[in-house]
Amino acid sequence: MRRTRHLKKLYKILRKVRSYEEQMARLTDQELARLTDEFRTRLAGGETLDGILPEAFAAICEADRRILGKSPFDVQVLGGIALHQGCLAEMHTGEGKTLMATLPLYLNALTGKLAILVTANEYLACRDAEELGPVYRFMGLTVATGVPTREQEEFGTEEKKAVYASDIVYTTHSALGFDYLMNNLVKNAKERFLREYYYVIVDEADSVLLDGAQTPLVISASPRVQSNLYEVADFFVTTLVEEEDYMLEEGKVWLTEEGIRYAETFFQIDNFYGREHFEINRHVILALRARKLFESGENYMVSREGELLLLDSSTGRTLKGMKLRGGQHQALEVKEGLKPTQESRAVAVITFQNLFRMFPKLAGMSGTMADAAEELRDIYGIKVVVIPPNRPGKRVDLPDRYFPNTKKQVAAAIINALEIHRTGRPVLIVAANIENTEKVHQAFLRKKIPHNVLSASNAYWEAQIVKEAGRQGAVTVATTMAGRGTDIKLGEGVEELGGLAVIGIGRMENVRMERQARGRAGRQGDAGSSQFFVSLQDDVMGENPAYDKYIEGKKRISRRRLQKYIDKAQVMGEESAVLSRKRSVDYDKVIQRQRNLIYATRDKLLEGEELPMEMILEMAERNIKRFLASGGLADMHALNRYILDNISYRLEDEAPDFAPGDRKAIERYLMERVRQGLEEQEKKTGSTGRMNQFMRVAVLSAIDEAWVEQVDYMQQLQSAVSGRATAQRNLLFEYQDDSFASFRSMEGTVYENAMRNILLSDIYVDEKRQLHIVFP
């Protein structure tokens, strides 16, 4: 196998690691464990991680051997070096990525900084931490799981503090993301539990960093006033005519100029994109997307209890507790005839793209990343290194079979599966969507073939089923195989029969998913085979009336033309997905800049930064000038109303001594009232220190309240802007422009709420000298 230049460098380091092998084997358990303190001392003395890597890797390899009874192969050490260097390591399924990760995790944990491994689901996080924890503890490190086990309740603040205080943490990508958001919503510094990010390894990296990268993690609270526009918008959308009122192209849908005029007539408004009609615009776009871009059984499903559940496109699993943002979930519920659930405001949001870009050292591992190496480098700035297998592969990848329609495609796949099953070989059928999974399941039931089905199922028992899929005579049906994270080991006698047979039904969204499915067979040099059955009705084909004559059998089509049409559709779909992810990065940068600014300001306030009285007075002066500029000079009634709402609940008995309309005099008068209010509040607190504490809490509360509104608005803005894809409209520019204007407006709101909190709050100090605050 041809080695890349980078791989040659890895082999050079590997030889250094192996040169310490005998030395480590001669050490007693106590001497081996004491090396951890020695390594840390050397690092503190100025040595680098790269410098101690050969010895540290050799030490943890020896610990793996003594505790687990297995020592990493050369290819696992190579992968571990690549992970330490901040690369994405592509390794074939079954090559031992879980054990490989112990090497870079141990090395990077020696710094005293947080080292995290992110897995695909809670089961794997708990399993890996339990299996590998004894190795780390033997070497004197602490290890924790960032998700509760099935027996545990949700973690509280103290439990999370203990988790993230550990040297090594095993968790899931969603748990880590929500913990980041929750850590930045705390009201005082004592409630924070996260340590500074340092090193993370993402398992099934392509599934997380690419396929799931745009999935937003949203913390919702404070219910919005329930909209009554969902039903009417859904009805309106059902009256639209494609290519006349709206356009549908490559996963995007938008109203045409004629459709916009029709909407204005239907809703009796004069400007569909006017700011005053934002809610109508938003609900129409949400309904249009729900009807044209989301498919039941592919993007979501309705449970027996009548709940709309989202589905992970790469694994077929339900996404526990997750809802689409900005009202899209409610639009789908109305489409399905369900009562819309309460729409909540988004309090905090982040995508996986932004979450993992925050780590100074990001690494990942998967069986399929080389095909997306360029995109991963562009978005995350990290390179992909393909690690050779430990043993030469013996899997036979048979040519794809092409069919004009789903009926013939599924029937042929089932016949092929039954023929293989009769030989005793285990069969794994991987379908591109849940609908085909169900068709295969029903066919096997009719033929009384014992089998297991994996689709939107529980990962805790799912992994056990996957593990058993290699035994003789086993038949397993699954909706794609990305992120399953469990090896399929061959049962006794299966190798001689030809190994596991993987049968794919449907062209998948991208080549990586197909490679992931094929990779379930031929683990570690085992025998095996794979073959895909595809048709013109696969999801990647979309809807194209030009194919109807072939699908319905009215006209024959050659295999070569079928292959051309289907493969071209997959390539176009992949290109569209890449563009969509790049566009998402651009959108994310907008909210990321705002989030960084807000979170940095919150951190300073939580850490006790003093607020100079000059700054408070400057905020008050800005508020007053804004009030006067907006018509506050009109009459004494408006002036008194402003004082009661913003400065003091008491008006002076005597009328102020200035002429109506005298702006300078009014400014001086209002600023004097502000100073009086601040003095009164400081007397109540009893000290300058407590006054500063009170002002910090008041400003923090104002920031949080305004930021919740901003986050919620930006989530809705993304949906609304996506519907402006008519000619001459730059969607990113419009999003940036609207969000910037909203952020500037938010700044004014923060100043107003902060001053109102400081001047109008009811505060008192109890007998224990504790400060109590009741905000207005």
Kindly describe this structure.
The protein has 776 residues and is α/β, with parallel strands linked by helices. The chain has 29 helices and 22 strands. The protein has a seven-stranded parallel β-sheet, sandwiched between helices. Strands 14, 15, 16, 17, 18, 19 and 20 form a seven-stranded parallel β-sheet that branches. The longest helix is centred in the C-terminal third of the chain and has 48 residues, at 559-606. It is flat, with a radius of gyration of 31 Å. The N and C termini lie far apart (72 Å).
Question: What is the compact description of this entry?
Answer:
The protein is α/β, with parallel strands linked by helices. The protein is 52% helix and 13% strand.
List keywords for this structure.
alpha/beta; 13% strand; seven-stranded parallel sheet
SSE layout:
Blueprint: H1 5-19, H2 21-26, H3 29-44, H4 49-68, H5 74-84, E1 88-90, H6 97-100, H7 102-109, E2 115-119, H8 122-138, E3 143-145, H9 157-164, E4 168-172, H10 173-183, E5 199-203, H11 205-211, E6 216-223, H12 229-238, E7 246-249, E8 252-255, H13 257-267, H14 278-292, E9 300-302, E10 308-310, H15 328-335, E11 344-351, H16 352-357, E12 361-366, H17 373-380, E13 384-386, E14 394-397, E15 401-403, H18 406-422, E16 427-431, H19 434-446, E17 452-454, H20 459-467, E18 475-479, H21 494-497, E19 500-505, H22 511-518, E20 527-535, H23 548-551, H24 559-606, H25 613-632, H26 636-646, H27 663-685, H28 688-722, H29 731-760, E21 762-765, E22 771-774
Parallel strand pairs: 1-12, 1-13, 2-4, 2-5, 3-4, 5-12, 14-20, 15-20, 16-18, 16-19, 17-18, 19-20
Antiparallel strand pairs: 6-11, 7-8, 9-10, 21-22
